[in-house]
Design a protein that fits this description.
- There is one protein chain.
- This protein has 201 residues and is α+β, with helices and mostly antiparallel strands.
- Helices cover 54% and strands 16% of the residues.
- The chain folds into 2 domains: 49 residues; 148 residues, Band 7 domain (Tetrahydropterin Synthase, Chain A).
- Helix 4 packs across helix 6.
Length: 201
Amino acid sequence: MAEEKQVKNDAEATASGKNPLLVILVVVNTLAVGAIGFFQFQNHKKLNAVTTASDVMKQDLEGGGEHAASAGHGEKKAEGGHGGGHGGEEKKGEVEGVKADGLLYPLDPFTANLAQGDGPRRFIRISLVLKFNKDAKKEEIDARKPQISDTIISMLNAKKPEELLKKEGKEYLKEEVKTSINNFLVDGQIVDIYYVGFQIN
């Protein structure tokens, strides 16, 4: 009888010994899941706040009055009295993404590895809008898109993070990209490049 009582007490002690450990594990697990959810939500908010190429083009259309079309809307004409005062001039160059002074061509966002610096391997996520002169033909740019992307990625692979974090580094990259792409274009030339997303991790 005494042995039975002792075995029962040992069983209760063991059960109560496991119980707090189980409770602690459940609490830690719950906190970890909550923290992961919070960081995912913050990251989602940050990504939604990033300006996209279509946002830039919409702002240009609403604010400047010189632009003829936004990224995904085909032919959309700018209104005459909306600010620029160019009237009939605007309507001459209005073909799918073409402005009176050129073509805005958004590239899909892409990610590239940067050159190995002192620390861990870093990469860049970048979105660009290329501005071509009015002689540019959308057909040629569409056909050269893989070559354009390859040129940009190759240049980024050669850059160290420290170079691109400085304002001068970003401007220098624009000039390098512009020169390299203009070397193989036949009809048009890039006159400017806009960063609409630039994140180094």
